[in-house]
Q: What sequence folds into this?
């Protein structure tokens, strides 16, 4: 971290970068200036007290000069050493204000549905615990207590933690917390019974037989189910597929859960698409309106397919899990599977590695049965 004797001229000369950075003062240890990507500048104190890091915002550089800021910092540091609680500076943002700023920024990259769901977790699980507190004061112990308080609703707890983490990273970017101080790091999710369901070879054969039987009556629904299994795509990605997205043997999706992506198609998947009639720009259009088909339209037909195939507990999304499990069984790497499924974060793909444990167990049982028989 650069260290220099801060002066008013030096403060004015500092230019913003892509990420926030700190400049320590050479005259007063523990005093410094943070320059934000927005161009804003905040004086701060940062020191160790009784084995803990203490971070305080002294004030905005646009509202005071270096001399005043250094004087305030000296008083704050002395109070910290004496163990006296110093009052919060009005520039230090409340948690709910930082949360609002984080959501405004993330609203540009989150999907509308993701934004709505995350707002719900903020309102229901996060704000009741952290509202009214200075964001800089929230530490890992506070987060641990909050996470433990949600043990009765583990799904909500697991999905709220990343939202809280985003807010804390935004606080760092705004200069309201020291860099690398995210208190959400290191927490493990609640252990829940896995919902990932994948079809066995026998189940795939039964489903294929049912699809063939319904091909004459429900050709579009059958084609969609086959594409879901053959591509590992999400349901919405196939339902909103345009003919212009299908070219050069690939699908070039304009939009997906993780943004634009390319889907590599196998020959069987290309055969499904090539057999369809082109009736407009959508691959699966509603006849009268010309709009893409709805999820409920597909779900109704899927209920019939799965009952006839004896797959009562299988969701359409489980076809995506099946695609991943087969790729894993055939020796594909986690990185390759992540690209097949369009995962933006490799951590998302790692949840499929438990399938290798299941397959190893099945192999052990097969070998054990063979040896026992001999």
A:
């Amino acid at each position: 971290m650069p260290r220099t004797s801060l002066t008013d001229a030096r403060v004015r000369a500092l230019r913003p970068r892509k990420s926030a950075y700190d400049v320590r003062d050479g005259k007063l240890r523990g005093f410094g200036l943070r320059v934000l990507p927005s161009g804003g500048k905040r004086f701060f104190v940062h020191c160790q007290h009784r084995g803990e890091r203490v971070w305080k915002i002294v004030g905005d550089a646009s509202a005071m000069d270096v001399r005043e800021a250094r004087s305030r910092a000296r008083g704050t540091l002395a109070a910290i050493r004496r163990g006296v609680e110093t009052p919060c500076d009005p520039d230090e943002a409340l948690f709910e204000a930082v949360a609002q700023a984080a959501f405004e920024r993330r609203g540009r990259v989150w999907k509308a549905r993701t934004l709505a769901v995350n707002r719900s977790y903020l309102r229901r699980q996060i704000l009741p615990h952290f509202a009214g507190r200075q964001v800089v004061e929230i530490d890992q112990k506070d987060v641990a207590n909050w996470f433990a308080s949600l043990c009765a609703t583990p799904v909500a707890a697991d999905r709220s933690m990343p939202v809280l983490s985003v807010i804390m990273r935004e606080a760092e970017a705004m200069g309201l917390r020291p860099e690398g101080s995210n208190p959400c790091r290191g927490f493990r999710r609640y252990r829940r019974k896995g919902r990932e369901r994948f079809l066995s070879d026998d189940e795939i054969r039964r489903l294929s037989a049912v699809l063939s039987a319904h091909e004459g009556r429900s050709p579009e629904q059958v084609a969609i189910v086959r594409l879901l299994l053959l591509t590992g795509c999400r349901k919405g990605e196939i339902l909103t597929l345009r003919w212009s997205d299908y070219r050069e043997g690939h699908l070039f999706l304009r939009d997906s859960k993780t943004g634009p992506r390319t889907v590599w198609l196998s020959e069987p998947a290309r055969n499904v698409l090539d057999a369809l009639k082109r009736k407009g720009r959508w691959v699966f259009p509603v006849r009268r309106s010309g709009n893409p088909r709805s999820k409920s339209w597909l779900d109704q037909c899927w209920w019939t397919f799965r009952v006839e195939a004896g797959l009562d507990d299988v969701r359409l999304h489980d076809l995506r899990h099946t695609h991943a499990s087969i790729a894993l069984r055939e020796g594909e790497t986690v990185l390759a599977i992540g690209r097949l499924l369009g995962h933006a974060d490799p951590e998302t793909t790692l949840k499929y590695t438990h399938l290798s444990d299941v397959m190893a167990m099945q192999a052990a049982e097969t070998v054990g049965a063979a040896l026992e028989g001999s």
Q: What stands out?
A: The chain is about 50% helix and 10% strand. The mean pLDDT is 82.
